[in-house]
Amino acid sequence: MRRSKHLCADAGYRSAENLRIIEEHGYIAHVVDRRKEIDIKRRHPSKKARRWVVEVCHSWFNRFRKLLVRYEKLERSFVALNHLAAAIIAFRKVPLSVNIIYG
Question: How many domains does the chain have?
């Protein structure tokens, strides 16, 4: 049994061509414009917009200044720093019983 694939996007993907491409790749498009999203938020304040997950992830990575502006010349150094940043982000999400101060 195959699970259906869902794609949450903003109003920038509402054009007929974008929706056609989304459907060709087997996704179910969930494209909500801002006004409708505000109405849903007003009626159900506990529901969160799902499409912001990627933007939050980018925000977490942008807090590492060395990654925000790419100073590294070698690709492997840049990739290694991305892996290190991901490990630090994951470590910060783990609930700990002791208070650890980290940079």
Answer: 2
